[in-house]
Amino acid sequence: MDTTRNTVLEAWTAEHGYSSNSLADAVNRALEQLTGRHGGLDGSSVRDWKAGRVTWPKSATRRALEDVSGLSAIALAVLITSVVNADGA
Description:
Layout (H helix, E strand, L loop, with lengths): L6 H9 L4 H16 L7 H9 L7 H11 L20
């Protein structure tokens, strides 16, 4: 199973000065605002998004990412399926 890197998210984080760890921290703070509980994300969570290993974060995480970025999760390509069949379909 091949994955496709989330280049949109990678570009956004670079443009806005976020490392994987700092984006995880920001999303955790946003999760706390939304749910009353601090999120449990770390830099490896964000690296999984960037690498295309996670293409559908939990709904609260998607909402927190939208709050942090000001963009929809779709605009950040977080929701785009990254699995490509061997025949390219």
